[in-house]
């Protein structure tokens, strides 16, 4: 089922477009189509991992091969999580790169691989083998677990190098002599230098330069392949963690957590720099490059880089400011209290004072937020991207002496216009840490005209430990309420409310609102030549918007009366004359075009009584005069109520009953319209009609009887008594 993103406003849409453009280099579309379409190139991928490479040192080092990849493609830096999700170690880092999920899913939190969840979250080469077994996959790694554990046995070839030089040589051999499609290479010796001498040492920079030379040889082997011109290579360079200046990793410092994605391929304009790409995005990007469709059941945390959509918060990056009260963040530009266009922050319940940067809902980058105070779970906010919204009662109150002041702020989205569907799909990244007392929840509010009260979408626990009870992308399929008349609201807003007394925090990002297709009004419609038709008369029914050649049954309702069938023309229209049965009761009816699936298209139609008419019948009768204008006749008769009289005579009185003998004459369909829409009396084809007025029915029946009482021979005429107008 298609889903439609619900636009907050035209301005918000424009902001999104600007955000995309800001994150990528512009490239002009060709004004003329190419003269001929080139044959599609074979997609191939190469991911090179440099263990322990610190990006800040790498960026300043003489590493021309890596810099050439940056200039020709994408550069993106981001941060790893830290304990308790996972320390900054190789097992956790490479598992995230290989699987496309964070450690709380793949469960590798050390280098012993004691409890991996690779069965549910396998490496991307294994996924390639399952989806496209004809592709050739290759792993070559210096660190043993890369080729024995991180990448599974489904990979076509897994090789362990004796050292980085051997790993490089074996990779070049396979690229030159074989035909691998998807390759992962692991170089380990930069990490060794970091452990030995630290990331600030000359030995560490030399190790980076050596790794760069090895990368140059591997990339050269790719470019020298005989079929290179017909191949579409995606080349990625990344790292599992950084290093401290004095050596070592595993902690939560900025140098240990900072990592990077450098990528060159047809997906990326030259010189692209982005702030919203993380190492968990590498696996999905490789799969997308190979044309392997992502399955939602995989539950990947990462996204193909080309599928990452900036949100309204990301548009705030040009407005970010430096620290004011947060002394430990001096030199980092990464916060603003200015909400995106269309969003509002309600701080009416916020006390004064506290940290300026954290007063109410504000907007931050991970560098600013997670480094405000280490070791308090802020580092685990890995599912947010770029700029996100933060409510942090702890850090707000910590700037001043703790005083039990209650943080209470609400973030309100723009108004999302709805399309008429009965449900709305809502998703957002939610990283909620609790250190009681605090509370958090989302409410859905509706347009004022609907008269609907706000409703709860979700509430989060108010008590517990700081361990994040929620750190995920939330998804809700929300059934919209209806007002007293059964109407759906026209728009909604989301209200994110958080309160706490020096407790913990709540992070929100990537708020998305979408709806399934709205019910499509049936384009089919019918019309009638006149809004009112006399019973027994004809009318022309016309229709449009039907399927070409669709066969329809035309009926008169309430009680269905067939009027005929009609077939729509090639343009879906028709025009058909129909006769309204003369016996149709006067009043409101409906003309109906009934479709093969049982559905109906209708239009109101008023039917009026036919005028009184008659004709001679056959047979004979003798009429006499009776008291009160009545008459007596021999033969079979009937009462006005329609009950058959015994053979012999039937007596009629001036109140409106009639006596008859002989054979009934021919009437309009053998019947007429009687009082209040009942069956009227027919005398040799004369229909007693127009009796919606009870007095008219009595007068007409009495007149007929007066004629009979005067001795007027009516011949063999069948008389059905008109219904009595009153008891």
From TrEMBL:
It holds the Pfam family Phosphodiest. The chain crosses the membrane at residues 695-716. Residues 607-673 are annotated as: Disordered. It comes from the Bacteria. Keywords: Membrane, Signal, Transmembrane, Transmembrane helix. Residues 664-673 have a biased composition (Gly residues). The keyword Transmembrane applies. Residues 1-22 form the signal peptide. Residues 608-663 have a biased composition (Low complexity). The keyword Hydrolase does not apply. This is Type I phosphodiesterase/nucleotide pyrophosphatase. It comes from Leucobacter iarius.
């Amino acid at each position: 089922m298609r889903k439609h993103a619900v636009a907050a406003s035209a301005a918000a849409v424009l902001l999104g477009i600007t955000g995309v453009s800001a994150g990528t280099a512009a490239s002009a579309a060709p004004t003329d189509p190419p003269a001929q379409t080139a044959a599609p190139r074979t997609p191939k991928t190469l991911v090179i991992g440099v263990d322990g490479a610190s990006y800040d040192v790498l960026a300043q080092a003489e590493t021309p091969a890596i810099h050439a990849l940056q200039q020709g493609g994408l550069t993106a830096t981001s941060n790893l999580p830290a304990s308790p999700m996972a320390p900054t170690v190789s097992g956790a880092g490479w598992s995230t790169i290989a699987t496309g999920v964070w450690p709380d899913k793949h469960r590798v939190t050390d280098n012993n691989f004691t409890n991996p969840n690779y069965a549910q979250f396998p490496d991307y080469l294994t996924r390639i083998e399952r989806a496209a077994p004809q592709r050739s996959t290759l792993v070559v790694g210096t660190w043993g677990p890369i080729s024995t554990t991180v990448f599974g046995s489904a990979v076509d070839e897994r090789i362990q190098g004796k050292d980085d030089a051997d790993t490089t040589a074996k990779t070049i051999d396979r690229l030159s002599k074989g035909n691998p499609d998807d390759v992962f290479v692991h170089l380990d010796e930069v990490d060794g230098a970091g452990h030995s001498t630290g990331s600030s040492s000359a030995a560490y920079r030399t190790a980076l330069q050596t790794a760069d030379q090895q990368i140059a040889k591997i990339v050269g082997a790719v470019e020298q392949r005989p079929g290179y011109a017909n191949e579409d290579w995606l080349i990625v360079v990344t790292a599992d963690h950084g290093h401290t200046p004095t050596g070592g990793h595993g902690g939560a410092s900025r140098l240990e957590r900072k990592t990077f994605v450098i990528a060159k391929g047809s997906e990326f304009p030259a010189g692209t720099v982005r702030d919203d790409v993380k190492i968990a995005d590498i696996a999905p990007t490789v799969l997308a490059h190979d044309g392997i469709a992502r399955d939602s059941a995989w539950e990947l945390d990462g996204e193909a880089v080309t599928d990452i959509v900036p949100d309204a918060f990301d548009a705030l990056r040009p407005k970010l400011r430096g620290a004011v009260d947060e002394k430990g963040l001096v030199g980092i530009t990464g916060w603003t209290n200015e909400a995106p266009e269309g969003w509002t922050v309600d701080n009416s319940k916020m006390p004064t004072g506290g940290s300026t940067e954290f007063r109410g809902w504000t907007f931050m980058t991970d560098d600013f937020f997670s480094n405000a105070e280490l070791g308090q779970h802020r580092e685990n906010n890995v599912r947010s991207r770029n700029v996100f919204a933060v409510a942090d009662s702890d850090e707000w109150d910590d700037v001043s002496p703790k005083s039990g002041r209650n943080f209470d702020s609400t973030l309100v989205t723009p108004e999302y216009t709805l399309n008429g569907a009965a449900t709305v799909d809502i998703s957002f990244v939610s990283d909620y840490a609790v250190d009681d007392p605090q509370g958090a929840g989302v409410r859905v509010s509706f347009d004022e005209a609907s008269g609907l009260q706000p409703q709860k979408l979700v509430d989060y626990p108010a008590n517990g430990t700081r361990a994040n009870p929620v750190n995920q992308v939330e998804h809700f399929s929300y059934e919209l309420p209806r007002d007293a008349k059964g109407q759906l609201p026209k728009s909604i807003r989301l209200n994110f409310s958080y309160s706490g007394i020096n407790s913990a925090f709540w992070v929100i990002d990537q708020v998305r609102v979408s709806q399934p297709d709205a019910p499509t009004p049936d384009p089919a419609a019918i019309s009638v030549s006149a809004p009112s038709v006399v019973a027994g008369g004809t009318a022309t029914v016309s229709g449009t918007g039907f399927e070409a050649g669709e066969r329809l049954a035309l009926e008169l309702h309430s009680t269905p009366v067939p009027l005929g069938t009609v077939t729509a023309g090639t343009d879906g229209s028709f025009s058909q004359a129909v006769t309204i049965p003369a016996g149709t009761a006067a009043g409101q009816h409906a003309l109906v075009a009934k479709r093969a699936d049982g559905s109906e298209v209708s239009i109101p139609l008023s039917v009026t009584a036919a005028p009184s008419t008659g004709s001679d019948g056959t047979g004979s009768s003798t009429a006499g005069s009776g008291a009160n204008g009545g008459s007596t006749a021999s033969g079979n008769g009937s009462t006005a109520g329609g009950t058959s009289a015994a053979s012999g005579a039937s007596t009629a009185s001036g109140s409106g009953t009639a006596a008859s003998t002989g054979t009934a004459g021919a009437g309009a369909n053998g019947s007429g319209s009687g009082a209040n829409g009942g069956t009227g009396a027919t005398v040799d084809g004369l229909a007693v009609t127009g009796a919606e007025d009870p007095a008219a029915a009595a007068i007409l029946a009495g007149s007929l009887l007066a004629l009979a009482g005067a001795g007027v021979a009516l011949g063999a005429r069948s008389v059905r008594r008109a219904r009595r107008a009153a008891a």
